[in-house]
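Dear colleague,

Thank you for sharing your sequence with our group. We've completed the structure prediction you requested, and as agreed, I am returning the results in plain text so they can be pasted directly into your records. Please verify that the sequence below matches your submission; if there's any discrepancy, let me know and we will rerun it promptly.
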Amino acid sequence: MTTVVPMSPAHPAFDQVAALFDDYRVHYGQPSAPETTRSWLQDQIAQHRISAAAAIRADHVRGFITVTVTPASLRLGTSWSIRDLYVAPHHRRSGIAKALLQHVIRNARAAGAHRVSLQTETDNIPALALYTEIGFKPVTGLELLNLTFDPTLQDPGDRA
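Please find the predicted structure tokens below.
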């Protein structure tokens, strides 16, 4: 049985979540940095920049999800954005991701949120299938734009 619990730095499973978060970063090509990852995650949660929940099965964290809540100014409400969702590789396709998503959806609905959004790579077919099954729909008519900063440029007038 999987139990989804809200995560805080004081939770006994926080170190497991931080370790799995480091694995998640490595999965996406970042170098492993367990202590830096743990510190960053602790700070983000403590400063209320993100909230997190963990899926626990057999006393071990098997997956996590992070969320941000932002103002939905046109609706004078809030929208929730799933920022990270990760399940340990040996525990995928066992309902853990679905349980994490349902946890966030229930909490967002209970909080009166206007919507829950997420994004993933277009070739992540298993994730897209799960998201569609749960009820997420593609957004048309919008483009995702980024401005990535170049740390070697110091002048705010410099482009990126």
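Summary note from our side: Residues 44 and 50 are 6 Å apart (CA to CA).

Kind regards,
the structure core
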